[in-house]
């Protein structure tokens, strides 16, 4: 048997933590201020503003910058995946390296291959997420290009169209976020090559880091305050018969 009972326990904990945190973050974002929830509101405001702008060059530049970031991670993922696949031909050398590390778990040929398979599978998922995010940003560009000008900002059909554009952008951002999470959890898998106990600790540390950054960071607090200010500005603008900026 390639895995010890502790290895199996560590793998189960890893899967439960990853899937559990994904479910928790998605459900929590519906009722709690976090990066996903607050940025969705900012995207709605952004799409509202696009509808009343005659010149949208700046918006196109912002979207192009987002797509460049995703394209960088997508191409980097392919390079990393190629490196992981190359390691399959160097398992014996990898065994020698691991056996020379103090306190590392005794390496097993089949176990190393299975761990590399898991690592490759994670980066395949990451690549799918990044490329799907890029495609959705392409869909958003088409929708923005088709959006007519709403000079008064009071056309309800166009306001609903703006909200639909925000949903598409939100889904693209979610795919990008899932791809980044794959990177985080892949680092936890790397620790499995050394010891399953370290794998458990790294998995919990990744979840803790993600939770702090997405729900408790200073960036979340600032984005939440900014959302409140934008809501107040829009309400004042609508109350005065003008479109808020």
Condensed summary:
The protein is an all-alpha fold. It has eight helices and no strands. The protein has one domain (5-15, 35-227).
Task: Describe the structure in your own words.
With 245 residues, this protein is mainly alpha-helical. It has one domain. 81% of the residues lie in helices and 0% in strands. It is built from 8 helices and no strands. The longest helix is centred in the middle third of the chain and has 38 residues, at 109-146.
Q: What distinguishing features does this structure have?
A:
245 residues, mainly alpha, 8 helices, elongated
**Oligomer class:** single chain
**Tally of separate helices:** 8
Mean pLDDT across all amino acids: 90
Radius of gyration: 23 Å
* Share in β-strands: under 5%
The number of distinct structural domains comes to 1
Order of helices and strands: HHHHHHHH
Share of helix, binned: over 70%
Strand and helix layout:
Layout: H1 5-28, H2 35-51, H3 57-87, H4 91-99, H5 109-146, H6 156-192, H7 196-216, H8 218-239
